[in-house]
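Service request form, structural biology core

Requester: graduate student, group of Dr. S.
Request type: structure prediction, single chain
Budget code: on file
Notes: please return the result as structure tokens.

Sequence provided:
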Amino acid sequence: MNYNISQILNLENCNAGVPITLIRDAAVETIRDNWAHDLDLAETFQSGSLNIPAETESVNESLANAGCRTRVTSPEIGTALSHWVEAETMRGKL
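Core staff response, request fulfilled:
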């Protein structure tokens, strides 16, 4: 289980609100785990050929497998990946 998903589970278990930034971080971390290279993921996303519904399903499955009640939507995945690509590009990592 990735670090961000475990944080979501801990917050849910404490009946605390889960910040959207944490949910987005967990989504990106889960998606990145499914790709061999960040650059390939970024290029596929930017080209518009990333299967966002499939990635959303994968993230939600990871959340469910960890025991989380939180789920993400395709627009949230798109926003999370967009922010990630922008941040990594500014850091010179992509």
